[in-house]
Fold each of these.
Amino acid sequence: MAPPAPQVVLRCASGQHRVRLDAKRFWSAAKCPSCKTPVDPTRIQRLVARGMVMSGMRTATDRQALWLIAGTVAYFATGLTGWILLWAFGDSWWPGTLVLFGPRWILLLPLLVLVPVAALRQRRLLVPIAITGAMVLFPLMGYRVGLGGSGGDEKGDVRVMTFNLASGMVLSRAMWEILGVTGVDIAAFQECGQEHYQGLIEEVEGWNHRKSGSACFSTRFPIDTVVVMERETFEAVGGVGMVVRYTLNTPHGPLDVTNVHLETPREGLEPIVSGELSSGVSKLRETGIIRRSESRRARELVESGGRPFIVTGDFNMPVESNIYERYWSDLDNAFDAVGRGVGATRYNGWIRARIDHVLFSDGLEAVRSYVGPDFGSDHRPMIADLDWRR
C-alpha cells in the first residue's frame, strides 16, 4: 500500500485560519473555506512547506537548520559573484568597478553570524562557510601572507616609498620627520604642494630634490636626468597623467625610478553611489578611456630608459583592475610578492583600497613591503625594500 501523500497546512491571507492543501491539487489556486481569502497565491510558501515535510523537517529546530543552510548557500553565491565581478569586470563594467573600489571587507561580516550559529547547530556547515570566508579574504579582498621575503629587520639595498600627500592637508609630521621615520632612500610624492617641497629643500640636507607639477621626488642618490611625460592632451580632457622618470646614479649602477599619479574613476563612481546611474556609467566610460591611455603612455616612458627600473606612485587602481592587468601586471609588485595583510593605502570612509604600488623590473627583487604609518593624509605610504639581484 502506497504511503499517503504529504499534507501541507498554511494560513490564509486573513491569518485567522489554517488550511490544509489537497496534494492532488497542489498547484491550484486555493481559498480559505471559512473566510474565502486566498491561500498562498504565489505558491512559494506551499513549495517550501512541502519540501520541509518531505525532508522530515517539522520542528522549529528543523526550520532553523533550513535557514542556516540557505544563509550558507546565499553567502557562497554572494562571495562567488563578487569574485567574478572583481576579476572579470573590474574597470571594464560598472558593477565590477563598484566591487573593485568598494568596501570589500563588508563581505566578511556574515561570518560573525554564520560561524557561531553553525558551531552550535550544524557543524558540518563550518567547512563550506570557511571555504567561502577564505574566498572572500584572499582572492576578493587581496589578503597577502608575506611568503617569499628574506625576513629580518635589515634594510635592503634600496628602500622606496610612495606617498600621496593629499595637497592641502596638514600632515602630522614635517617632511624631514617622515623621511627619518621611514628610513627610505627614495621617496616619490604625489599631490605635493609648494609648502611640502619647500619643507624638503629647507629641512632635508644632503639629499637631491625635484618638483614637476604636483610630483615631488627626494633621494639620497644623485639624479642624472629627469623626463616628464607630455600631459597637455590628458589635461585637456580632464585627466591627471603626472608621470616623471628619474635616472639615478646608485652604487650598483644606473637606476630609473618613475613617479606616477594616474587618473581616478571617482567622478564616475560618486554619481552611481548617489543614485545617478546613467550619468555615472557614462562618466566611467569617459574616464576609462583616459585611464587606459595614461597607463599606455606611462608604460612607454618607463620602458624607454632601457635600464633596471622601479615604477611607483598612486596608480588609482587596485591590482585586480583590468587596466592594471593589461599594462602593469607583468612587473613584480613588491607587496604582492612579500607583503602581509590587505595593504590598504587609500582610506575614504568605509573604503580601504590598495591603489599605491611599488613595481620593479627583473634586475631587482623584493625583500619586504609594508604600509607605513598615518601621517595625516587620506593615503598611507607604501614602502618596499628591494635588493639588486646578485
Amino acid sequence: MSKHHYDILILGESLTARLAGALLAKAGRRLLTFADRVESPPAWLGNSLYMRQILDLLGGRHQLAPAPRLQILCGQTRLELHGCYPLEEELQREFPSCHEQLHQLLQWLKTRGETLEQQLWESAGPPLFGFVGELRLGARLLLRRSGYRSLRQPLHRFLQEIQDLEARRWLDTLFSGLALQPARNLTLAEGALLWNNLSQTQAIAESSFRELLEQRYQQFHGRLESPDVIEQLTNAQSL
C-alpha cells in the first residue's frame, strides 16, 4: 500500500461504522476503512427525527418508503400496525371496551415523543436508552425547562390507567418488544420516544441506506482496504 496521510482509521464495516465514515468523509476528513465485504444481518432502522436529519445531510430523504406491516401478538390478541386498517379501527376490534382510552393514551405518547425528539435534536444529538441515556435526557430537558419531571415516572404506572387486563398485557408486550427489556424498566419519556418512532407511517429501507452510505463514502474520497493489509504491514515492520 502506498503512503498516504489519514485523519481517521475505521476498523470494521458495521452499519454504524458506515454511517460514521460517510458523515466524517462529507465533513472533509481523510478516512481509511479496513473491512471485508461480508454480508451482515439486516438491521431495523427506526424512523426517528435523528435518522431523517441524517438522510437530509446525505441527500437521501427520497429513500423513505411506507412503513412495513407489523403484527403485535399477545395471547388471543392480534393487532396490526401500518396495515389495511387505521390503528383506531384495529384497537376497536381487539379492545371494544376500552379502545377510545387506549387510542388517546397512544396518541398522547406520540405527541410527547415528537416533542422530546425535537428538543433532543436541538440539544445536540440523539437520546440513548438505559441509565446513562436517562441521565443525559434528564439533564438536557431540565436545562431547557421542558417539564421533564412528569416524564421520569415509570411507564408501567402510566399504562395501569387502562382498566382492561388484556389491553395492559398487550401494551406490556409492545413496549417490552420495542425496548428488548421489560417494560417496567422504562420511563414514560423512553416509552414516548419508542412509540413515536414505531408509529411513523414511513420507514428507512436498510439495504438502500447501506448503499447510500457507501456511495457517499466513495464520493467524498473515503478509502477501503482489506484487513489483510494490516497484517502485511506488521510483517514488513518485523523484518
